[in-house]
Write a structure and sequence with these properties.
The protein is of the alpha+beta class. Helices cover 33% and strands 15% of the residues. The strands form 4 sheets. A 6-stranded mixed beta sheet has the order 5-6-7-8-10-11, covered by helices on one side. A 3-stranded antiparallel beta sheet has the order 9-13-12. A two-stranded antiparallel sheet has the order 1-2. InterPro entries: WH4_Lhr.
Length: 275
């Protein structure tokens, strides 16, 4: 079974459940008749929150391993765009890349995908559908390394669209080594023109920076501030940057401090907050 909302999970974690109705004070008293609207509203109000939403039965698992591999190969091609050995390893596919390699090679022979050296340093066993290759070429034609756009994109660290920690290794940070990036639940990455600029731990308390470019830092800070402005998160509180208190003058945290203040974060006793 699967549902279309996380409300039941939150209800279970919060200890919510059905409430027992109190017995009426006068058992012989006949309650007034409810209108259809009032009856429906009362039923919705008293519904068990642990079964909220719409539920449906999942299909049975496909017993044929070949069909499962074909479906998984198509899924990962669409998910990653350019599928590499490291990306498959990060997905935890049963049988690893060797299993999917046979299917992807068959796809290539059938003209359903292409194999090539699309992205430098990711090995020769890269697979992508034709539309992805065309999009990569069109993007390459419009990129001028001498004139960066400083376009920031904020993603969940575990999002397949984030290549770091999967297809690409995490770059070196200027932190002291006590905090490390990872594809962790709740963590965020900020990519500026496709390159990792910031990593934010779950809850936002610890920030790691990966760029010395003031413009890239500013774009990353604006990207985080826009999360709050758009209502995607209620607030962000940054307490440490690169292992140091973010409010400490000078040192490694100064670049993040300057960028966050310029993006609308305000000083608090604990750090910098945006809400």
């Amino acid at each position: 079974m699967t549902g279309d909302t996380f409300a039941p999970v939150r209800a279970v974690l919060g200890g919510a459940g059905t409430r027992k109705r109190a017995a009426p004070a006068h058992g012989g008293h006949r309650p007034p008749r409810l209108s259809r609207y009032r009856l429906t509203h009362a039923q919705a109000r008293n519904a068990d929150p642990t079964v909220a939403g719409r539920w449906s039965a999942l299909p049975l698992p496909e017993p044929d391993s070949t069909l499962r591999a074909h479906y998984q190969a198509e899924l990962l091609l669409n998910r990653h765009g350019v599928l590499t050995k490291d990306a498959v390893a990060a997905e935890g596919v049963a049988g690893g890349f060797a299993t999917l390699y046979k299917v992807l090679s068959a796809f290539e022979d059938a003209g359903r995908c292409q194999r090539g050296y699309f992205i430098e340093s990711l090995g020769g066993a890269q697979f992508a559908v034709a539309s992805t290759v065309d999009r990569l070429r069109s993007y390459l034609d419009g990129v001028d390394p001498e004139q960066p756009d400083y376009h920031a994109v904020v993603l969940a660290a575990a999002d397949p669209a984030n290549p770091y920690g999967a297809a690409l290794p995490w770059p070196a940070s200027s932190a002291d080594g006590t905090a490390r990036p990872g594809r962790k639940a709740g963590a965020l990455v900020v990519l500026v023109d496709g390159e990792l600029a910031w990593f934010l731990e779950r809850g936002g308390r610890s920030l790691l920076t990966f760029t010395d470019d003031p413009e890239a830092n500013h774009a990353a800070a604006i990207g985080l501030a826009d999360l709050v402005t758009a209502g995607r998160v209620a607030s962000i509180l940054v307490e440490r940057a690169d292992g140091m208190p973010v409010l400490q003058p000078g040192g490694r945290a100064s670049a993040a401090l300057t960028a966050l203040l310029a993006a609308g974060f305000v000083r608090t006793p604990r750090g910098l907050r945006r809400r």
